Amino acid sequence: MSKNPRFYFSLRSPYSWMAYRDLLDRYPDVAEAVEWVPFFEPDELSTRMLTERGEEFPYSAMSRAKHFYILQDVGRLTKARGLPLTWPVDRDPVWEVPHLGYLVARRAGLGREYVDAVYRTRWELGRDICDPEVIADVATSLGLDPVAVSTAASDRALREEGVEILLRICKDGVFGVPFFVHRFSRFWGMDRLDEFATHLRSKLAPAGALPASATSVGLGRSSEESHAGGCG
């Protein structure tokens, strides 16, 4: 099992977006210490490639009731944070488009900047981040190759890298986002960020420097037991 602390984020999820903002605003040291790993629902091709590797993606579609709850909940949370919010409309989304595009940006040393720009594009401007033209615009604004970034989902090598990430998601027991992992400890939801930060600081700081007060989520706990600001 990897010893590196990990932050599983999704460019689709409003809770992941808010956790990202809270992470940078309140815990910049933690943001620097964690590995940023994209979480995305696989399309038909990625699902087939994952199945060929003997795994099944640990995600199920939310109910209509939960969907309406999230609309209300996110409205409250963004208002409390003073964040602008424009709900996007997803039409036949292929989540590999923005998330594999992140891999290209990360290789260029602009992964964090890409995440920020895509979140802003989706949640503040309400644009469709599964549209390659939208991702090309984001890439151009960052000085990245717009073709390489926007067509990442068509690149076989990047598809295979994406499947490796999906395998990590399965191995780490990630069932929703945001999700934080450090060794055997799991923390699901933006409401667990404080606990994760306390936990991680206590482990990375000199012995006795910080109290360890986090409560982790066990591997066997179902995603239905609490909401915790977690979303798929």
TrEMBL record:
Question: Do you know which InterPro entries this protein is assigned to?
Answer: DSBA-like_thioredoxin_dom, GST_Kappa/NadH, HCCAis_GSTk, Thioredoxin-like_sf
Molecular functions per Gene Ontology: 2-hydroxychromene-2-carboxylate isomerase activity; glutathione peroxidase activity; glutathione transferase activity
Active site per the UniProt annotation: 13
Q: What is its EC number?
A: 5.99.1.4
Can you give the residue ranges of the DSBA-like thioredoxin domain?
7-200
A Pfam match: DSBA
Q: Which UniProt keywords apply?
A: Isomerase
**Gene3D superfamilies in UniProt:** Glutaredoxin
Reactions catalysed according to its record: 2-hydroxychromene-2-carboxylate = (3E)-4-(2-hydroxyphenyl)-2-oxobut-3-enoate
Instruction: Name a biological process GO annotation.
Output: glutathione metabolic process
Q: Signal sequence: where?
A: none
Family indicated by similarity: Belongs to the GST superfamily. NadH family.
What is the official name of this protein in its record? 2-hydroxychromene-2-carboxylate isomerase
From which organism does this entry originate?
Umezawaea tangerina
